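Exercise: predict the structure of this protein bound to 2-acetamido-2-deoxy-beta-D-glucopyranose.
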Amino acid sequence: MRKRVSAASYYLMLTSFIFVVCFLAFINYQHLGVTHSSILPKFSISRASQQQVSHANDAENTNNNTFKNLNKKTNQIDLSNQSSSDALKIILLWSTWSSTMADEPLVKARCPVTSCIFTADMSLIHQSDVVVLYVDTLTDFPLNRRPHQRFVFAQLESPDNTKMATINDPRLRYDYFNWTMTYRRDSDIFLRDYYGSVIKTNHYSKLNTAKISNISQEMTALIRGKSKLVAWFVAHCSTPIRREEYVRQLSDFVTVDIYGRCGKDCPSNCDDLLRTDYKFYLAFENSWCPDYITEKFIRPLVYDSVPIVLGGANYSHFAPPHSYINARDFDSPKELADYLILLDKSDDLYARYFDWKRDHDITLLDLSGWCDLCEMAHDDTLPAKTYRDIKQWWMLDDGECETDSNKYF
Ligand SMILES: *[C@@H]1O[C@H](CO)[C@@H](O)[C@H](O)[C@H]1NC(C)=O
Ligand SMILES: *[C@@H]1O[C@H](CO)[C@@H](O)[C@H](O)[C@H]1NC(C)=O
Ligand SMILES: *[C@@H]1O[C@H](CO)[C@@H](O)[C@H](O)[C@H]1NC(C)=O
Ligand SMILES: *[C@@H]1O[C@H](CO)[C@@H](O)[C@H](O)[C@H]1NC(C)=O
Ligand SMILES: *[C@@H]1O[C@H](CO)[C@@H](O)[C@H](O)[C@H]1NC(C)=O
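Solution:
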């Protein structure tokens, strides 16, 4: 009986909540002077209310420098002349992304073209040139659009972790997206963002020989100080691809120290520990998908350890030769272990795994994809484009992940 009462009052509360939110949304649209209801985005009620609430919360946070900057820039836009290619382009980040990006990624990345504004202000839907939809965080999506607008499929998680309910929605799946922006190299916009990147430079050519020999000496000292073999920092203890089983088999032959949720705590800073103590780091991805290489790979490169990779990407497209060891180049965990033992015995052989540092740098945050997006938003010569079936592109065809690791170990 008590349960029924509480369920009833719950529904009453929910109904009034939805009513209030719809009312606020209505006021909001009136305020924008949008009168033709046919051009309003159509949401399902409950989803729309969530979004409107978070939008309202964002609006309260205007006491913020970035936000002030955003408002200032937005006011400069001549909304009547959007076709001009040098006008500021509005890139709307639909869904729950940070609303305070403004032109920050473009400035940070020193993009050649910076005349774009990133905003999460959904009232700008009809003024936007580009609408970025990050599928995993979508709670709703716009259904009415202007022909010149590009709707962008954005994804940084692998297909294995993509929200199926969203991508299966036929309204979103078919003839909806114009561009793709993902970690896959065949995307319209290739984005690595917080996964980081190895970047080619002519670093060493600018240094004099004294300095270079100094760096080599420091490196030699660092390598001599490393007394342990393999570290693994891990949070997901069990994965469909069974990477943990590979680690178990490997640890029959060499010591693997496991830290994090599936092992022990780092005594102090994990990254420092990696630099001072460990020769190798297991950069095993939790799903094996084309081009899917996360920050797990970039971190050990920064912290002077050699990544041992296991994943679905062709790593040679992402890092120079001899900067990592690919477990899949070995017939078994035992063969890999034998190779690690060989390198452990020879500082010279091991040191060669750092030669790439002479002409490469690492960036932990690679924002160049955002530059490309802004540039493309300005390029009026780009033809119209629509993805007939985004699921086909993302998870079938060229995007398919490996699900069976039995043949490897
Ligand atoms: C301003 O934005 C930053 C993120 O860009 C956030 O960390 C900070 O809390 C915000 N400040 C206010 C007052 O909302
Ligand atoms: C748009 O702006 C450009 C350059 O600022 C100008 O040449 C053009 O006449 C404008 N078009 C309209 C329709 O106002
Ligand atoms: C070499 O490194 C030491 C200590 O790391 C530093 O004091 C010295 O100035 C460096 N020499 C050169 C030529 O960079
Ligand atoms: C990886 O890419 C390189 C360079 O394009 C190519 O030579 C190599 O065959 C590829 N490896 C695999 C396993 O596909
Ligand atoms: C974007 O896709 C929509 C839906 O298929 C299409 O109507 C529109 O012409 C496309 N726009 C561009 C600029 O490619």
